[in-house]
Amino acid sequence: MSVDALKSALPDYAKDTKLNLGSVTTTSQLTEQQLWGTVLATALASKNAQVIRELAEEAADNLSAEAFTAAKAAASIMAMNNVYYRATHLIGDETYATLPARLRMSVIGRPGVDKIDFELWCLAVSAINGCGRCLESHEKVLRDGGMSRELVQEALRIAAVVHAAAATLEAEAVLAPATV
């Protein structure tokens, strides 16, 4: 199970997604930990079992046990935070931003890996989950920590491609009975 297996599972009409999946995982300027942590966190955020299975196995081969756990933690904490912060932002009443969230988020302060790597994974998950407030916050931490815009963009491309693979496979699963 691997990126190649996932590419093989995608239908012919998703050729661009196949090619992009290969490209974002083989030509990245991110460190191996940043790359595979981003791949794993976004696969989990995609909520597609096939994408998770295929990409998690390859990520496990490229990440330490601590980094693998931290990438899972990034997907988990952002599943909560993206809902909360997106909602408080979309309500349009800035008073909500001044209220304490009262949600436990200690993993963000002590993720068990380099903070920049964890922030990158949180940013990528936030892109999939569509939380502008979280995207702004994590991008600022990354940029203040010395990460270039080009590397931030790489994580966003990974999120986009993993999400596209998941959406395509979900659509195929729904359409399969109709096309048989």
Automatic annotation (TrEMBL):
The keyword Oxidoreductase applies. Coiled coil: none annotated. It comes from Actinomadura barringtoniae. It holds the Pfam family CMD. Antioxidant protein with alkyl hydroperoxidase activity. Required for the reduction of the AhpC active site cysteine residues and for the regeneration of the AhpC enzyme activity. The keyword Transport does not apply. Disulfide bonds join C131-C134. Homotrimer. One of its GO terms (biological process) is cell redox homeostasis. Keywords: Antioxidant, Disulfide bond, Oxidoreductase, Peroxidase, Redox-active center. SUPFAM superfamilies: AhpD-like. Its EC number is 1.11.1.28. The gene is ahpD. Residues 97-175 form the Carboxymuconolactone decarboxylase-like domain. It comes from the Bacteria. One of its GO terms (molecular function) is disulfide oxidoreductase activity. This is Alkyl hydroperoxide reductase AhpD. It catalyses: N(6)-[(R)-dihydrolipoyl]-L-lysyl-[lipoyl-carrier protein] + a hydroperoxide = N(6)-[(R)-lipoyl]-L-lysyl-[lipoyl-carrier protein] + an alcohol + H2O. Belongs to the AhpD family. The active site is at C131, C134.
